[in-house]
Amino acid sequence: MRNLRYFTFERNRYFYGKLLSVDDFECEQRYMNDKRRLINRFVLGTGVVCGMNVVPVDDTAISVEMGMALDFAGREIMISQPVIRKLSMIDGFSDYTEEDEENSCLYLCVEYDESEKEPVHSVAGVREQGGQNMEYNKYAEGYHLFLTSQEPENEELSARAFYEETRTVYWGNGIRVKQTVPRYVRSGQEFELKITVENMGQQKPVSFSYDLNLTCIQGQDNLTISFREADYAKAKSYTLTRKLKAGAVNDIAARLTVAQNSFQMEIDGMPMKGEAGGTSAVQIISGNVKEEIISRYYQSAMEEIVKDTYQQSIYLAKISVIRTGSTYMIDAVESMPFHQYLYNNSLADAMNRMALEEEETREKSVPAESRGRASGGAQTPEQGGLKIATGTAAIDMGIGGTPGQKFFSEEIPHGLGLGAVNIILGEVTGDGIRDSGSLLFGTAGIFDPEPGEVRVELAAKVNMEKGTFMIGVKCLEMTSQSRLRVNWIAVRDGQELVQEREQAVMQIRPDMLELAIRDVYYFEALIGGAVESRVRWSVREPDGGTIDENGMYTAPNKAGVYEILCESMDQPGFRASTFVVVRDV
Fold first, then answer.
1. Which of 98, 113, 388, 574 could cysteine-pair with 568, CB 3.0–4.6 Å?
2. Where in the chain are all domains bearing CATH 2.60.40.10?
3. SS3 of 59, please?
4. Burial class of residue 577 in the structure, from the number of CB atoms within 10 Å of its CB (0-12 exposed, 13-18 middle, 19+ buried)
């Protein structure tokens, strides 16, 4: 069935005496297929569900492992057993060899296909084969593998398209330069600009630079991007990163535009002509980024899916090829270069469980929020860089108090973590625990006394090691009140680094990492859960790559396991290490 239209649905209506024709049976199949494929496409998505890994067998052949995928029309693609093919025997390779190509890579794609099978005698005599009237009895659903040098036209087939934008700003002389930015970022939040340099077959060292004109970026109007391949071990791809900060605006796109005539390139020291161009856009929002992604999907997904009825392939691998005359050799194979995976329910369940376990771990490391009559606090969202928690404490005064007599509350957890916290106290006058009466902050005696007012002095003592505080009351006059309710507000600077002595150990985040050769990654050092900025980074192995003072690690050009070390410059004795597994993919 090659029908690519979902709508409208028609099904057979049966009745006694109905004469069934070929159209009726095809309508029956079409109805069931279209409904299933509609659910596949709209509910599940598009991409590889499992398997379909591509690995090199030798210098000229590859193997496609068994697997399943859903194509752009919701049709199932099944590879039921591994397929080993020489590149030269796959459709599209001959077109590639005839080109005067400067690109040294091909993309292996898979599409849904079906063919007629099982020839049988036809009474109606529609086709004649070998002197007999023949027809095919069945359709066999299958797949079609082919090679192309073209990248996918529709980036929406990749889940990455929902949260990041990638744009090619230069392609020529065997080099391609791409910029990747997040699609959405909150106002005032930092984000990462990633520049990917792909060597598409250029054998000589390349260097280039260009300028970016920036709008709605805090503290910057322009940025220079420069690259010297001689500074790196020879590889197929290089990644540069730059940290930027969104401006204090809302619902406006920050733009990173390549400045006209700013691109300069040299190959082996010789200037080359070339021009880069393009604009990357980051939408600055005030709300939650995840909620924004979900909202935009629901607004546009229907239109995007229905309009794309042309054939769209699933890209299984990027294959780097070295040509020598009429022969060729496979240099490297990268599986799923455009990440066209389908996130199925099994994976989603596993990720949700991991997220829940991480959340439980975080909750255990933070003091519980104030609860009950003696605490009753609740933490509010950060405002103006501050963390705020509020609550009430009921202080038992027995049969009352005499001048100079002191009373104290139990320890109250404020819920803002360990360290210094400012406490603001307000006394509630009146009788007992009730919401009427006046609320007094500061020193008693400034205002004229009100009926039933309890004249006391209030103080708070914070225990920075426990994340708690106590309230003390000193009576200034005779009172018969049995209890006094005190409202409290705890305030803390949201940017303050918390030294949690209960977890006073140094850690490196992440604690284990896998990278490809020459990949770049930023490490973070933490002491008691707080980020430590002044640390000394190093790599134990002499040939284990490099890491700068900011924690940016560049993997070496050789696979292996390497140890990353860090030491606090402000707190001697705090050291940590982690391991990086570098693979030659």
1. 574
2. 155-307
3. coil
4. middle
Query: Position of tokens 């040098």?
Result: 149
- Which pLDDT tens digit goes with each residue over 196-232? 998 877 778 899 999 999 988 888 888 999 998 888 8
Which two three-digit tokens encode residue 344?
């199925």
Please check whether residue 84 is in contact with residue 63, taking contact to mean a CB–CB distance below 8 angstroms.
Answer: yes
Superfamily of domain 155-307: Immunoglobulins (2.60.40.10)
Banded pLDDT at 182 (limits 50, 70, 90):
very high
Among 206, 200, 194, CA closest to 176: 200
Domain 501-583 of CATH type 2.60.40.1080 = yes
- Confidence band for 184, pLDDT divided at 50, 70 and 90: very high
| Cα 285 from Cα 183, distance rounded (Å) | 10
Query: Cα separation of 398 and 384, whole Å?
Result: 41
Token pair 């001697």 is found at 572
So what's the architecture of 378-493 in CATH?
A: Sandwich (2.60)
pLDDT digits (tens, 9 = 90+) for 521-560: 888 888 766 666 678 889 988 888 899 888 888 888 888 8
Report the residue count for the chain. 585
**Tokens linked to 499:** 């030294």
